[in-house]
Design goal:
The strands form 9 sheets. A 13-stranded mixed β-sheet has the order 37-1-25-38-39-40-36-35-32-33-34-42-41, with helices on both faces. It has a 5-stranded antiparallel β-sheet with strand order 8-10-11-2-24. It has 934 residues and is α+β, with helices and mostly antiparallel strands. The chain folds into 4 domains: 216 residues, no CATH class; 147 residues, paz domain (Beta Complex), CATH 2.170.260; 134 residues, Response regulator (Rossmann fold), CATH 3.40.50.2300; 284 residues, Nucleotidyltransferase, domain 5. This is RNA interference and gene silencing protein (Qde2). InterPro entries: Argonaute_N (IPR032474), PAZ_dom_sf (IPR036085), Piwi (IPR003165), RNaseH-like_sf (IPR012337), RNaseH_sf (IPR036397). It holds the Pfam family ArgoN.
Length: 934
C-alpha cells in the first residue's frame, strides 16, 4: 500500500487529531529539501543525502519525547577549562574538578552567573564575551574552614577561548530549502545546547554523575500510590540531548525510572508481587536481586556467620548447590524452596531455647525459627540468600524489612516487570512536561534561557508516521502463517526444508542432584519422547533419541566429564545433534558444553532447561525443533520478498556486524569480540558466522577484511563461482562513536575484501556494489500513540511503525523502525542510518526518489521477520541479531578456552601507531559453515 504523505491523507489525519497536528512549516521545508536533492542522487556514495521520504504503509501521527527549541540568533562564546594540580600528579579527580569550577563561578563570575553555563568539567559557554578570560587561583572548597584550612590546596584554573558559534547561522541552515547551503558545525551546537540546558540541573546540585555526562538525577514529589512499581514521578536519571532537525533544534529528556517499593515486611511485598505469578520464580528473583533489607536484630547471628550488621543485600533465592564447598552444605530441595524445604546445619554451640541440651545436625528453617524465635513461617514464601552462592546466608522473608522508598535493583529505561508499568500515553506526556520543569526549561525558573536566546515549546513534538503491513511468513508449500501483532504460531506448520536425520542424543547436566536415578530417568524419558514426537511432526528426525549421558559433578570436575561424554557419544553413536539439558543449578556448566561442542568436537548442540522439557509445552518443543533444523543447515520459514525488486533475484548478500566487550559488556574488559554473519541463500534463512577476538577496547574491527573475505569465498563456492552483485551491510553502533570513524577504519577493509574474493577468471567484472547501514539501538527517541486505536498493548506504537520525518536532519538518510510487538512498556524503535550507498539509489536512478527509501525500509522490515528460530519479529534486523548472538556465544566460553591454535593471531596498528593484536576464532571445521552460535 502506498500513500501520499503530503496531500489528502494528511489532511484527514490532521482533522482527526487537530490538537496533535505536526508542524506544517517543518513538513514543507522537508519536502522542499527533498525536491532539491532529487537531481543529485548519485553525486556521492559516502554519507549520501536523503533521496526522499517513504510512502509505504498506513499514515499515523505519534507523540515524541522531544521538545522544540527556538533560538533567537544569539552568538555563543566558547571557552575551555583546564585545571592544573599543585602536586606532582597532573591529574585532578572529577569530583575535585566539579567543586573547583563551582567555586570559580561563585568567586569570579558572580555578576554573570545567568550568562555563563558550564559542564563543570572542561567546557564553558557565555552569552557575552569574557574579556577577563585568564588564569585564576581557586582553593578546593572541600578543605576550606575548620582546623585544616591552612592545609587547603590552591589550583590554577585556565579559561581560554576556543571560538564563537552563531545560532542565527545554525537556524538559517536548518531552515534552508536548498541542500547546497553552507553547513555550520552542527555537532558543536548540539554540545553547547547540552551544556547550557543541563547547567540548571547542575547548579541545583542534583547529583550530576553518569557515563555520558548528559544524564542527571532529578526528582519530583510522588504520591506513592502503589506498594511497588516504577516510580514515574521520582526519576532515577534524565538523559538530555539536543538534536538537529528541519527548521528547528530538538531537545530530548528521556527518563530512567527506579524500581521502588514501600516500606514494610519483605513477606508482604513478595505476596503482592506473586499474585497471578505463582510459578514465576526466576522473575521473582530478578525482582528482588539487589534490594537492601533490614534484618531483625535478634536473628542476625542465628547461623554464626554474620556479626553485627543489620542491612543486607539480597543476591537471590535459595538454590540447590548453594554452599557446595562447605563441610556441611545446606540442603535445598529445589530452586526457590520454602523454609520447610531448606535445612541448615546447627553446630553444638547453637542451642535451641526449648531444649536443655545442645543439638547438632540438620534442621529446617521452619522448625528452627518456630522453636528458637517463636516465629511461624509461611511455607509458600521462598527463602532469600544475602550471602553468596558459595557461602550462603539464608533468611526467611518474615524477618526482613524493606526500608521506605528503597530501590529494587538498577535503574533502567525499560520495564522488567511488565504489569507494573501499564501507563497511558497521556501519563507519559504529563511526565515529560514535569521533567522539563525539573530541568528548568521555562524562563521563569531559568533566566539563563533568556540570556542565551533559547525558548522551549511547552508541548512535545508530534510527527507523521506510517504503519507497514506485516510481510508474508511462508512455511512448507509456501503456505503463509497467520501473523498477528508481529507474532505467529508454528505448531501446525511444516518447515520449508527440514533436514531429516536419523539420530540425536543428549547429555543431562545436573550437579548435586537430590532425586533418585529411577525417578529422574523416568521423567526425562517421558519428556524426550514428547519432544521426539514434535520433531517427527516437523519432519526433522525420523526416530527418537539415542540414550545419552547424565553428568552430576560440580564445576571443578564437570569439564573433563563433559568432554568425555561428548567424545563417547560422537564416537559410538554419531548423533547428528546433541541436546544439552541443564538443570537450574547447572546454568554455569552450559559454557563448558558450548566449548566442547563448538570448538573441540564439532558437534552441533542445543541447550535447553530441564524445566522446559518437564512442562510438556508443545510450543517450546517446536522452538527446540526450529533451532535444531537451523543448526543442521535446514530452512524453517521464509519471508516474502517478491516485491523487493533486485533483492528477490538472489544476487544480494546481506551482512550483519556486531562488537561487544568480552567481559559481559564491561568497558574495563581487555578484550572485545567482533561477530560477522552473512546470508548464504536467497531466502535469508542461513547465516554462517565469523568471530574475531581483539585485544584492547577498540570497538572497530581490525580484521574485518579477513572475516568478510571468508564469507564471500563461501558465497562464491555456492553460487557458480560468482560474487554477489550487491552487498548490504548492517553495522551495529555504540553510543559515543562518531560516524566518520566507521568509514575511515572499516569501509576500506570491506572494499579490499571484495577485491581479494573475486575469482581470477572474473577479474574483468565489476566488484559488488556496497551499502552500509548503521544500526543504533542506544538512541533516545521514543514514540507514543495519540489515539487509542493506534496503540499496541502497553500503549506502545503498532508493530511496523516507521518514522522518517519531523525529528531527523533532512539531509541525512535515516529512519526509525519499530518492527516488533512490544513485551515491555514503551519499547524504543531502532534507528537505521545510511552512511555509504552504491546499491539502492543506483537501482532507482531513473525512477521516483522514494524508490530507494521504500526498498530499504521494506528490506529492513522483512529482515526483522527472518530469524528462523523465532515466531515473532525481532526488535532489530536478523543480521545484527545473529551477529550479536555469535558474539555472546563466544563470550560465554572464550575465557575457558585452552586449546592450542584456537585463535589465529594477527597484528594491526591503530591511529596512534600502537600495535593491536586480534585473533580469528577457529571453529571446528564440521560446524564452521553452520549457525553454531544458536
Amino acid at each position: 500500500m502506498q500513500v501520499d504523505i503530503s496531500d489528502s491523507n494528511l489532511r484527514i489525519l490532521n482533522d482527526a487529531n487537530a490538537a496533535s497536528r505536526p508542524d506544517a512549516i517543518v513538513h514543507e521545508i522537508e519536502s522542499a529539501i527533498s525536491k532539491s536533492i532529487a537531481g543529485t542522487l548519485l553525486e556521492n556514495s559516502l554519507f549520501p543525502l536523503r533521496p526522499g521520504y517513504g510512502t509505504l504503509g498506513r499514515p499515523n501521527i505519534l507523540h515524541t519525547n522531544y521538545l522544540a527549541l527556538t533560538l533567537s540568533g544569539k552568538r555563543l562564546f566558547c571557552y575551555k577549562i583546564h585545571i592544573e594540580s599543585p602536586g606532582s600528579d597532573p591529574s585532578v579527580k572529577t569530583s575535585t574538578v566539579k567543586r573547583l569550577v563551582s567555586r570559580l563561578l561563585i568567586e569570579h563570575f558572580q555578576l554573570y552567573l545567568n550568562k555563563v553555563a558550564t559542564d563543570y568539567h572542561c567546557l564553558l559557554y557565555s552569552s557575552v564575551e569574557i574579556p577577563w578570560a585568564r588564569t585564576y587561583r581557586v582553593t578546593d572548597p572541600k578543605q576550606v574552614g575548620g582546623i585544616r584550612e591552612y592545609h587547603a590546596r590552591s589550583y590554577k584554573v585556565y579559561i581560554s577561548p576556543t571560538g564563537t558559534l552563531s545560532t542565527e547561522e545554525l537556524m538559517t541552515y536548518l531552515s534552508a530549502t536548498q541542500h547546497e547551503t553552507k553547513v555550520p558545525p552542527v555537532p558543536q551546537f548540539m554540545q553547547a545546547l547540552d551544556v547550557i540546558i543541563g547547567h540548571f540541573v547542575r547548579k541545583q546540585i542534583l547529583s550530576v554523575h553518569t557515563v555520558t555526562g548528559h544524564n542527571f538525577h532529578a526528582s519530583a514529589s510522588s504520591n506513592e500510590p502503589q506498594p511497588f512499581g516504577y516510580d514515574r514521578e521520582s526519576v532515577g536519571h534524565v538523559s538530555i540531548k539536543a538534536h538537529a532537525a528541519a527548521a528547528r533544534m530538538l531537545f530530548s529528556a528521556t527518563a530512567r525510572y527506579p524500581l521502588w517499593c514501600q516500606a514494610g515486611l519483605l513477606s508482604t511485598i513478595i505476596k503482592k508481587y506473586m499474585l497471578n505469578r505463582s510459578s514465576q520464580t526466576a522473575r521473582l528473583e530478578n525482582f528482588l536481586r539487589g534490594t537492601h533489607v533490614h534484618v531483625t536484630p535478634s536473628v542476625q547471628n542465628y547461623h554464626g556467620l554474620r556479626h553485627g550488621t543489620d542491612i543486607e543485600v539480597i543476591i537471590g533465592l535459595a538454590n540447590c548447590g548453594d554452599g557446595a564447598i562447605l563441610q556441611y552444605p545446606p540442603k535445598v530441595a529445589r530452586y526457590g524452596s520454602g523454609p520447610h524445604e531448606v535445612e541448615v546445619f546447627l553446630e553444638s554451640r547453637q542451642t535451641l531455647r526449648t531444649g536443655s541440651s545442645s543439638r547438632r545436625g540438620y534442621v529446617t528453617l521452619t522448625t528452627f525459627f518456630k522453636l528458637e524465635y517463636h516465629i511461624v513461617l509461611d511455607l509458600n514464601l521462598p527463602v532469600i540468600n544475602v550471602g553468596t552462592p558459595e557461602l550462603p546466608i539464608y533468611f526467611p522473608a518474615e524477618v526482613c524489612t524493606v526500608q521506605a522508598k528503597r530501590s529494587l535493583g538498577a535503574v533502567s529505561p525499560l520495564a522488567h516487570h511488565d504489569d507494573l508499568v501499564r501507563v497511558s500515553p497521556e501519563a507519559e506526556i504529563a511526565g515529560l512536561k514535569k521533567r522539563s520543569a525539573a530541568l528548568g526549561l521555562t524562563s521563569s525558573l531559568n533566566p539563563m534561557l533568556i540570556a542565551f536566546g533559547i525558548e522551549a515549546s511547552p508541548d512535545p513534538v508530534t510527527v507523521y508516521a506510517r504503519v507497514l503491513a506485516a510481510p508474508s511468513v511462508l512455511y512448507a508449500r509456501e503456505l503463509p502463517a497467520r501473523v498477528v501483532q508481529a507474532m505467529w504460531n508454528v505448531n501446525a506448520s511444516r518447515l520449508i526444508r527440514p533436514v531429516a536425520r536419523r539420530s540425536w542424543s543428549w547429555i543431562y547436566l545436573d550437579p548435586l542432584r537430590t532425586e533418585t536415578v529411577d525417578t529422574r530417568s523416568t521423567a526425562l524419558t517421558k519428556s524426550l519422547n514428547r519432544l521426539a514426537t514434535v520433531l517427527r511432526r516437523m519432519g526433522i528426525f525420523t526416530s527418537g533419541s539415542i540414550r545419552g549421558k547424565t553428568i552430576s559433578s560440580t564445576k571443578d570436575h564437570a569439564k573433563t566429564q563433559i568432554e568425555d561424554a561428548v567424545s563417547f557419544l560422537q564416537a559410538k553413536n554419531r548423533p547428528s545433534i546433541l541436546l544439552v539439558i541443564l538443570s537450574t543449578r547447572a546454568k554455569s556448566l552450559g559454557n563448558l558444553a558450548r566449548l566442547a561442542c563448538d570448538i573441540n568436537h564439532g558437534m552441533p548442540a542445543i541447550e535447553v532447561m530441564d524445566e522446559w522439557l518437564a512442562h510438556a509445552d508443545q510450543e517450546r518443543y517446536a522452538k527446540i525443533g526450529l533451532k535444531m533444523n537451523l543448526k543442521l543447515g535446514g530452512e524453517n520459514h521464509m519471508v516474502g520478498i517478491s516485491d523487493l525488486g533486485f533483492v528477490a533475484r538472489g544476487k544480494t548478500m546481506v551482512v550483519g556486524i556486531h562488537v561487544v566487550f568480552a567481559g559481559a559488556g564491561s568497558q574495563k574488559s581487555p578484550h572485545s569480540i567482533a561477530g560477522l554473519v552473512a546470508s548464504a541463500d536467497s531466502h535469508f534463512t542461513q547465516w554462517p558466522a565469523e568471530i574475531c577476538l581483539q585485544h584492547g577496547q577498540d570497538l572497530h574491527i581490525h580484521r574485518l577484511e579477513e572475516m568478510l573475505k571468508s564469507r564471500m569465498c563461501s558465497w562464491v563456492k555456492d553460487h557458480d563461482n560468482t560474487l554477489p552483485d550487491d552487498i548490504v551491510i548492517y553495522r551495529s553502533t555504540v553510543p559515543g562513536c562518531g560516524y566518520g570513524s566507521w568509514v575511515d577504519k572499516e569501509l576500506p577493509q570491506i572494499k579490499d575484501a571484495c577485491r581479494a574474493s573475486q575469482p581470477t577468471w572474473h577479474a574483468h567484472n565489476d566488484l559488488p556494489r556496497i551499502t552500509v547501514v548503521l544500526v543504533d539501538e542506544g538512541h533516545d527517541a521514543q514514540f507514543f500513540p495519540t489515539t487509542d486505536t493506534e496503540s499496541h498493548r502497553y500503549n506502545s506504537p503498532l508493530a511496523g511503525t516507521v518514522v522518517d520525518r519531523g525529528i531527523s536532519e533532512p539531509r541525512q538518510w535515516d529512519f526509525f523502525l519499530q518492527s516488533h510487538s512490544p513485551t515491555e512498556s514503551l519499547n524504543r524503535p531502532t534507528r537505521y542510518l545510511v552512511i555509504f550507498d552504491e546499491v539502492f539509489r543506483r537501482r532507482y536512478q531513473a525512477r521516483s526518489s522514494d524508490g530507494p527509501v521504500n526498498l530499504l525500509q521494506g528490506l529492513t522490515h522483512r529482515l526483522c521477520y527472518s530469524s528462523g528460530e523465532s515466531t515473532k519479529a525481532r526488535r532489530v534486523c536478523a543480521p545484527v541479531w545473529y551477529a550479536r548472538q555469535a558474539c555472546n556465544r563466544v563470550r560465554s566460553y572464550h575465557g575457558l578456552a585452552t586449546k592450542p591454535g584456537l585463535f589465529s593471531n594477527g597484528q594491526d596498528a591503530d591511529d596512534d601507531g600502537k600495535v593491536v593484536t586480534s585473533s580469528v576464532l577457529q571453529v571446528h571445521r564440521t560446524v564452521r559453515e553452520s549457525m553454531f552460535y544458536l
